[in-house]
Amino acid sequence: MTKLKASGSEPRDGAVLSRPEIQCLTLVAEGKRLLDICNLLVLAEIQVEDLLQSAQQKLGARNRMHAVSLAMLAGAIRHETHSKPE
Length: 86
Fold this sequence. Notes:
By secondary structure, this protein is mostly helical. It has helices spanning about 20-30, 35-40, 45-60, 65-75; strands spanning about 1-5, 15.
C-alpha cells in the first residue's frame, strides 16, 4: 500500500493505493493496453477496469493518464528510462 502525498491534486483523505492498483497504473504508464494488462496480471477485464477506476478516484484524477501522472508525482510509481543502444 502506498500512502499518497498531496501533489497539487485532490486525493481523498487517507487515500492509499493498493498493490494491484499500482501494478495497473505502472503498466498503463508503460503503454500497455487493457488486454495486455489483463494477461500480465491474470485478471478479468472488469477487474482491471475497476482497479484503474479506483486508483483514479483515490488520486482525484480526471482520467487514466492523469492518474498515472499524479501517481508518479506522489512517488507511488516510477518511470524507468530504458536507454537503447546506439
